[in-house]
Amino acid sequence: MTIERIHPQNDERAAWAAKALAAFQKEAGADLPELVGDLLVDLMHWCDRNNHDFDAALFRARDHYAAEVKGEEFG
């Protein structure tokens, strides 16, 4: 049994990400192999211009991901 079968809400999370990537791909014209990396780079630029700490957000995201694949939820 896969993690996704145990925690189907992660399927929904992945679908949200797919929608965001599709919108980015449409606007930026990035190719699929480079799409995630290109989006991350552009998010770094956005963070620079909006006084947001990208590294802190990435650290938080990694923690949330680890918890979500284990079935924990954040409120």
Give the overall shape. Answer: flat
Task: Kindly report how far apart the N and C termini lie.
Answer: 27 Å
Flag low-confidence runs: none
Given the helix and strand composition, which structural class is it? mainly alpha
- As a percent range, the share of strand residues is under 5%
Helix content: over 70%
Number of strands: 0
Topology:
Blueprint: H1 3-6, H2 9-28, H3 32-49, H4 54-69
Characterize the structure shown:
With 75 residues, the chain is mainly α. The chain has one domain. The chain has four helices and no strands. The longest helix is centred in the N-terminal third of the chain and has 20 residues. The radius of gyration is 14 Å and the shape is flat. The relative contact order is 0.11. The model has no long low-confidence stretch (mean pLDDT 87).
Observed structural traits:
75 residues; mainly alpha
How would you concisely characterize the structure shown here?
The mean pLDDT is 87.
